[in-house]
Amino acid sequence: MRHTFLRFAFLFLSASLILSLNFNQIASAAEYDEQFPPECKVALRIITSPEYLQKNKAASPELNNLDNDSALNSVTTTFKQAVSDADDKEQFCATKVRKNLSYTSAYNFPQQCVEFIPLLRKSFEDRVAIKTDKNNGVQRKMDEAILEMLVLDEIDPPKLIQRCEVGTKVMHVNLKDTHLREKYPLPASCEVFFAEMEKLMTLPAEFETIQRQRVIFAIENKDTPEKLVQICDEISK
Prior knowledge:
Order of helices and strands: HHHHHHHHHHHH
Distance between the termini: 13 Å
Structural class: mainly alpha
Number of strands: 0
Largest sheet: none
């Protein structure tokens, strides 16, 4: 049972994005607007951007004869109605965002994240195991990362900047450093947990994921040691 839990925990860590690896989930949409989650605010901003409207107006007969303001109002009304009708509003809007991430003029990340994004892509490229599907695998991971960043930017912009700063620092750490444990020590409960996790790792990429998590924990919580103890106590139960 213990090994099953540890394996599940590793899969959780390896699937999680750098931006959300401190075990603090992004606040639920219900905390902001039950009818219009942050994912939907992001989606609406994209589909009402000048770039999106210009490229999609010709393909939508109902918008063809409308001026820009009228087209904007029509798209907004139609989208809000679709959100209202959706069984899972967050998922509906998240899918809309994923499909339209190419409209980059609709969102502007802070400079800290602009610097972090190519480093994150490189880390995904290094970790994708199936080389024959490498490009698609990396792009899927990047799409999820950008989606999370956009949602966090909608909810808590300073937090996004902090996550990007931490991510950039982590990407410059040599995860193969034999003194990594001494440089980034963790509370005893986390050390035990990490030691057990490391025993289960069979691939270098898996081991590096654990080491990356160590660095994230240490850097992101260096000013709040009591919070890190709480996190470690929780995951080691």
